[in-house]
Design brief:
Layout lengths: L5 E7 L2 E5 L19 H10 L8 E5 L3 E5 L3 E7 L4 E3 L2 E2 L6 E3 L4 E4 L7 E6 L23 E3 L3 E3 L7 H6 L7 E7 L10 H4 L2 E3 L7 E5 L13 E2 L4 E4 L5 E4 L6 E2 L3 E5 L4 H4 L7 E6 L2 H24 L4 E3 L7
Parallel strand pairs: 13-21
Antiparallel strand pairs: 1-4, 1-11, 2-3, 3-10, 4-9, 5-8, 5-10, 6-7, 6-9, 12-22, 13-20, 14-15, 14-21, 15-18, 16-19, 17-18, 17-20
Length: about 325
């Protein structure tokens, strides 16, 4: 008899979404990239539980999520230091664990950062659309998130050093940027001298900031392609950093673009956090991206080669 497995959504929380690497080949259709907002945390969580780094996971924003195991489920949480419990017993972030059928996993809140990734052995087996398992809407109470039945041979945990590197500093973050296409519309260096505060109206589409307004340029801009990381300046002189769910074209002038190596920082910004911008050259941006890729790959290799990976009870569920 085949045992059903997966997680039933008891409480959906503020915003919990199944994600993977997104839809990189659909932007010419006007479809946003999507996918994990903090890709390093998502990939490291998958590697810790023994998955390929790109397996679908549940991105939990701000907490409030409660899930019930329908069968044996091996899982881990990776990202911001959320408080989590299994039937009332604490579950540290970055630690593997196996749920028994009927047990409840509760994810509440976090003092820092805003997102944590729930990675299950084998990844969530949700529908694929446009080459991606990233969902179009958050989970709802009563939803079933199917996954393989699995247990673990021994518990594993990410080093505290690594978990700390996944979070923004308590004093705020510094984003390295290259000049945007309309940098010349904003003379002077006020954008780089000021400190901005993250506003509550921040989501996966964009990080809204507030600070001393920049002078509104006199020119008008026809809508043109934009990408995650673009820093637009609105008519009131305030910046918006586009996120993974941002539109594919926009009409606000782009003063700068956050470099690839710093994009994951955006996924952990929460209201009240402070943000500063530092200009770098394109050569420096490429070097930083190379260093980031190397750092992440080294950790992924270490985790994937380590012992103690999950053992699938129902291998047919992963075929």
């Amino acid at each position: 008899m085949t045992l059903p497995s997966g997680l039933r959504v008891v409480e959906a929380g503020v915003y919990s979404l199944v994600v993977d690497g997104g839809r990189p080949h659909t932007r010419h259709w006007g479809v946003p990239l999507g996918g994990a907002a903090d890709r390093a945390s998502w990939q490291l969580g998958n590697a810790l539980i023994g998955n390929t780094p790109t397996a679908p996971a549940l991105e939990i924003t701000l907490g409030g999520t409660v899930l019930q195991a329908l069968g044996p489920v091996a899982l881990t949480l990776c990202g911001a230091p959320f408080t989590a419990f299994i039937d009332g017993q604490p579950l540290p972030v970055g630690c593997t664990v196996a749920l028994r059928p009927g047990q409840h996993l509760q994810i509440t809140g976090s003092p820092r950062g805003v997102r944590v990734y729930l990675c299950v052995a084998g990844g969530f087996m949700t529908p694929c659309c446009l080459g991606s398992h990233s969902a179009w809407h958050p989970v709802r109470p009563g939803d079933i998130l199917p996954c393989a039945s699995a247990t673990i041979t021994r518990r594993r945990r990410l080093p505290d050093e690594l978990l700390g590197q996944l979070l923004p500093a308590e004093s705020g973050i510094t984003c390295r940027v290259v000049d945007g296409p309309q940098r010349s519309w904003f003379p002077g260096d006020a954008f780089f001298q000021d400190t901005y505060t993250v506003l509550p109206a921040t989501n996966r589409m964009g990080v809204r900031l507030h600070g001393p307004p920049l002078p509104r340029p006199t020119g008008e801009l026809l809508s043109e392609p934009v990408a995650p990381g673009a820093v637009q300046i609105t008519h009131d002189g305030q910046p918006i950093i586009l996120g993974v769910d941002a539109q594919t074209i926009g009409g606000y002038p782009k003063i700068a673009h956050v470099i690839r190596a710093d994009l994951d920082k955006l996924g952990q910004l929460r209201p009240g956090d402070l943000v500063r911008f530092v200009p770098v050259s394109r050569e420096q941006a490429e070097q930083a991206a190379h260093q980031r890729r190397r750092w992440l790959q080294q950790w992924l290799d270490r985790l994937l080669m380590a012992e103690g990976t999950p053992v699938f009870v129902n291998q047919s569920l992963t075929d």
